[in-house]
């Protein structure tokens, strides 16, 4: 489903991720809102067909939810690839609230999808897996989880990941759509919520009944509520869980932030064969390289990479 709503203005509480808890239920969770600063520029940059933009928006929202949930510091990467219209999907969350994402389409896919609406992940990507990776940097162990792309939505695939790989009861909802405000161009917005069951202990006892009650309330959450600029995250949490004593922590800002830089790119190019690099030299005598995420173009002197 493609969401489109008309609102007077963008909410000041956009582009955030925040933790939340319930006083009367064994729950911890995260809520995300992304719009003008952390989502729209990423999706507009490559002019994706609507179903591809929506899937990438969901992946970015999921990356923020899961990345902010983890205790270990590192880059959280949500990735999927296959032989469908979308050959590769990557969304990354970096500590401090950075988001970047990219979708690579198969040849001719853009035209075939130009009039399409929301599509299931497996339809866009083909048979494959959803891979979540925590990259803690050089000389540190990376952790990876894999789950088949067999859900009708990316949220369903992610729920299966937590259920199978983490053995944690988890509810996830992701929504992406364009919001119209007067004569202004439409704005891509997304929202997401993740809720997990806390294990029972001597103090809590059996948490099953309380979790089931919270899950029923979570199931009433609608996509329109998650992208509505007039319904900030804290008000939505109160609407859902006011009887459970919902508490939202101070939000962390999110932003469109690419991690590419010329030094890293130069180091990578130095590993290429000299002959291959020489063939890539443009008429202006420079090597041209463009970041697939942010589309920033770099001009590299061939002498810097041993190609001259």
Fold topology:
Layout: E1 3-6, E2 16-22, E3 27-34, H1 40-45, H2 50-69, E4 75-81, E5 86-94, E6 98-105, H3 109-112, H4 121-125, E7 129-135, E8 143-148, H5 154-166, E9 170-180, E10 187-197, H6 208-218, H7 223-227, H8 233-241, E11 246-248, E12 252-253, E13 255-256, H9 262-269, H10 274-279, E14 287-290, E15 297-300
Can you identify the CATH class of the largest domain?
Answer: Alpha Beta
Mean pLDDT: 88
Roughly how many Å apart are the termini? Answer: 53 Å
Radius of gyration: 21 Å
What number of structural domains do the residues give? 2
Give the overall shape, derived from the CA principal axes: globular
Fold-level CATH name of the largest domain: Hsp33 domain
CATH superfamily of the largest domain: Hsp33 domain
Structural class: alpha+beta
Continuous helix count:
10
At CATH's second level, what is the architecture of the largest domain?
3-Layer(bab) Sandwich
State the total count of DSSP E strands: 15
Description of the structure:
- With 308 residues, the chain is an alpha+beta fold.
- It has two domains: 3-256, Hsp33 domain (3-Layer(bab) Sandwich); 262-305, CBS domain Like.
- It has ten helices and 15 strands.
- Strands 1, 2, 3, 9, 10, 11 and 12 form a seven-stranded mixed beta sheet that branches. The protein has a six-stranded mixed beta sheet with strand order 8-7-4-5-6-13.
